[in-house]
Structures are given as C-alpha cells and as structure tokens.
C-alpha cells in the first residue's frame, strides 16, 4: 500500500504541471475571476480578526455528536430526542449574531494521515472532489452550530436542533488541482439567515508554493429543524458588523429572490420563452429529413449524438455508514455519488479526462431512508464548444412495487481539452431537458 502511495505521489509530481495546462478550458468562464470579490481572502470579515480554529474534520464530527447528544453505533430505531422539544427557543429570545461569530476553519490532515490519503486520493494523485463535497456539507452544518446561541438553554442540555441541507446554490472551481498528499483547509461562515433557514459560504484552500490557493467555493442553504426533525426552529438573526458584511448579507437576500424567480420560471413549470421556442424549431429542422414526411423519422447530423444514447446509470444500495442521526441518507453521500457518476458520464462522452468547472442547483426534495436503493442516472443534456452539461437524477426505488420517486437533481458543467461532439434531443421531452441544460450552462458562466 505504501509503495502504491509513493508511486501515486511520484506520478502526481510528474503530471501536475502538464495537467494544469492540458485540462484548462479553451475559454475560462468569467465567474472564476469575478466571483472572488467578497469571498477570496477569508480575512475580509471585520478585516482583522482571524477565523476560529475548529481543528480537524474528524474533531468537528465528534463535536457535533456531543452537542446533539448522539452516540456511536447503529440503531435501527434512533434514540428519541423528544425530551428536547420543550427547549426549542422563541425567535425573540435569540440574540443577534455577526458573521465573525460563525467564521471558522478546519483541516483535512492529508499530509500526515496515510489512511485518510487512501480515502481521498485519485489514481492520478489528485483529491477526489466527491469526498470534499461530503466534508463541505458537514462543515456547513458546523457553521450553523457556531452561529447558534441559546441563552435560555440549561447547562448540560443537548442542542435541541437538527440541521438539514435544502440545496447547494452553486459551486465554482478554480484551475488549482488539489493534491491528495497535502493538507486542505476548509473555511466558512453564515452569510444570510431567514427565520429558520441559513445560508453558509464554504471555501476550500490548499497550500501551494508556500501560500494557500483557493480550490473551490460553495453556497449551502440549510434548514434549522427541531430536535425530532418534525418542524422548523428559529435561528439567531444576523447583524452585519461592517460594510463588507452588509454587502454579503444583501447578496444572500438577492440570491433568495433569484432562486424564487428561477423556480417559478422552471422549464418543468412554464413553457419555453420565445428565443427558446425558436431554438426548438431549429433543432426540429436539423433533425428532420426533407425528402419524406414519415412520422417520427429523424436524422442525426454529422458529428452529433442523440441524447438518448448519452447517459450512465448506477443503482446504489445505502448502508448505515451513509446515514445521519435520523437514519436518513447523508446529503454529502448523495452529492459524492452523483458527482462520481456524472464525471464518469462526461469522461465516456468526451473520450478524455474532463475538468469539473461548476456545480449548480443541487436540490434535496425528499429524505431517503437508510435502507433504500438509489438509482443515479447522469444524462448529457447540452454541449457547447468544449463544454458538457450533465443533469443527474436520483430516484429511490420501491423494492416491493418497482416504483421510483425522484428525490434529488444535480447539474454539472465539465470542460474537455478538445471540442466535444454535439448532443441533440430526439423527442419533445428530451428537448425540454436540452433547454434546461442550456439554461444551467449559461447561468454557470455568470458571476455569483
């Protein structure tokens, strides 16, 4: 095992420089430069005070279990937390908090922990981004813990809260290829709050050439629930401490409004707009023969592929190791699984190793029981130049009836070193997915 790890390190040192050039997109998305305005240097909060050090991710997990009163080991029926419901606070009893209060950091000690390296490293020596998504999801919940202050909670009583991930708004990636043998620092803080919802910004950095380089940044929207996860719970209001925090707080409110507008205008709820309908007609003309009126007769233009032939699917049984404390599947596990099959779909479509550019709109519609079978299907729904847009759908399968219910959708933008084969829809249903993929791709090219 050690010899294999040393080989991976050697391989990484030889190919790292080449990969930085080889896998860079032909035209870098504008958001990489523009989205750093308020998030790039972590010390922007209050301009001077450093973040609170929370230790390693392992220590954070233990700390959260202690605060919530959870025990190690699997139980088919989780320990009841009903006794904590009476400690659910009222909103007026919660003092305001500043962003600095939740501003914290944690370390993934990849440089020292060889067991952890085996879990996180890819065959090229890079870090598996899917593993990092799991940690970012957990870290976002930890930032929520740091934000909470309950003045009336008796000493020794466990926290009467549960935090669940509602959605991940967007995740942007830089051109830094994270090494699997160097420590990674997670940083984050609460950036906006509602009555019972919390937006958390999380970013990852790794030491490169003596200074921390940004790997990615993500926005998580979390819901504060009561101890039994049966209803919402209020959270401390957020009071900006300076002009920078006012800008960030206003940005969170703007993003909420934008999410509501986009949800109302979803292609799955309202008809396509006029330019999109024109595009649909152009697609029809390109794929319909001119020498016959035969019903449903379609032709595939040169250098194109049908969408129906451009997907990958996997059925995943879930296990207790993938659970949260309510015996539901951990959201981070779903994000990792979806990313890995999406990456495989992009790789097989491009016929070369793709680079992950952007993740948008990861939504969690329904909780998944820990004994479920999860079907992940990654579809190539849109292409442009050297970019591939993937839509991945997670369905829960009913083992008795065979029925399936969609619980999550994920959207990923990948780039290839070369121009990719154009994907085309063959049916009206696929055309709607094509339009949706086009919207997501164009949104990924705009700053946060």
TrEMBL record:
CDD domains: BFIT_BACH
Keyword Membrane: no
Lineage: Eukaryota, Metazoa, Ecdysozoa, Arthropoda, Hexapoda
Superkingdom classification of source: Eukaryota
Gene Ontology MF annotations: fatty acyl-CoA hydrolase activity
Organism, scientific name: Drosophila erecta
Stored SUPFAM superfamilies: Thioesterase/thiol ester dehydrase-isomerase (SSF54637)
Protein name (Swiss-Prot/TrEMBL): GG11815
Coiled coil: none
Keywords, alphabetical: Hydrolase, Repeat, Transit peptide
InterPro entries: HOTDOG_ACOT, HotDog_dom_sf
GO cellular component: mitochondrion
One record GO biological process: acyl-CoA metabolic process
Family membership noted in the UniProt record: Belongs to the acyl coenzyme A hydrolase family.
The gene coding this protein: Dere\GG11815
Residue span, HotDog ACOT-type domain: 106-228, 308-420
